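User: I've been trying to design a sequence by hand for this structure and keep getting stuck. Would you show me what you'd pick, starting by listing the structure so we're on the same page?

Assistant: Good idea, let's start from the same input. This is the structure you sent:
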């Protein structure tokens, strides 16, 4: 078979998921057991929840910024888990490398991203928007800037944002579901339950069916009037200084001065509607499914 035929076949065959939801939960439960044993043996002062969340998060999100907003992980924990996997022929370490996983709902969620969101919310509550929905909306605004930089019409940009949100670009389906589900799962987790049990219960018994309303109630408490979704969510997004800094990195805000990232007026005029379109598309998605 000629090489280009092989390439064509590869492009036509859909990308398969690297691990099933069932196997992911099995490995997660094993990982949680090992980390609990580590904490007992080492008498580590960090909470068990933090150790689990931060350890998984570091598989993908491990730069200096994430260390600030989501905390440290003991340097010897990786080798501890690796040795346990080798001793018992398990795959706990794999949890740090999972990408999108197909849920029982037939939707995707980004496994490590979900734990990163929960980690940031647990460690630094003020970073909740940055590590989850807000940070991804900044990426969506960047996608709009990069693909429709010369477009100024807000309605057109909103329609383009809808084509990206949960579908393609940097704010795909895996990220969207992780952003929505993470706050709910973190809130529902009881001290006596593992994350694996909490996540599995959330999807198996149908709790996810109310997730839009649950997400809004947690992240935007008191927001019930659908006519106000755009204004309330935009105000919260635009007032978040951590997101402002991220927008500077993405070229949406005026550079040259670090302090300009903090000011609402620092957004470059040509990208005001790109930012609004990203936020409004997300707000509309929530209001339409609330």
């Amino acid at each position: 078979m000629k090489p280009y035929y092989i390439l064509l076949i590869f492009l036509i065959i859909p990308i398969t998921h690297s691990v099933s939801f069932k196997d992911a939960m099995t490995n997660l439960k094993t990982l949680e057991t090992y980390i609990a044993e580590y904490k007992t043996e080492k008498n580590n002062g960090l909470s068990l929840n933090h150790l689990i969340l931060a350890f998984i998060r570091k598989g993908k999100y491990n730069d200096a910024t994430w260390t600030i907003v989501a905390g440290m992980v003991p340097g010897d924990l990786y080798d501890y888990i690796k040795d346990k996997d080798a001793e018992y022929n398990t795959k706990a370490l794999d949890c740090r490398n999972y990408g999108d996983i197909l849920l029982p709902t037939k939707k995707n969620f980004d496994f490590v991203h979900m734990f990163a969101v929960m980690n940031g919310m647990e460690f630094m509550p003020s970073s909740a928007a940055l590590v989850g929905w807000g940070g991804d909306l900044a990426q969506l605004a960047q996608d709009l800037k990069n693909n429709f930089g010369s477009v100024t019409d807000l309605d057109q940009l909103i329609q383009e944002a809808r084509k990206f949100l949960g579908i393609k670009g940097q704010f795909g389906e895996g990220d969207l579901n992780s952003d929505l589900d993470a706050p709910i799962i973190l809130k529902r987790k009881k001290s006596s339950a593992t994350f694996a049990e909490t996540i599995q219960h959330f999807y198996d018994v149908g709790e996810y069916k109310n997730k839009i309303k649950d997400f809004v109630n947690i992240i935007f408490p008191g927001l019930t009037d659908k006519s106000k979704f755009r204004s309330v969510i935009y105000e919260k997004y635009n007032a978040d200084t951590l997101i402002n800094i991220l927008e500077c990195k993405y070229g949406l805000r005026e550079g040259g001065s670090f302090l300009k990232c903090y000011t609402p007026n620092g957004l470059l005029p040509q990208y005001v509607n790109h930012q609004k379109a990203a936020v409004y598309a997300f707000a509309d998605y929530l209001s339409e499914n609330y």
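That's my pick for every position. To get oriented when you compare it with your attempt: Confidence is low (pLDDT under 50) at residues 1-16. The first helix runs from residue 3 to 12.
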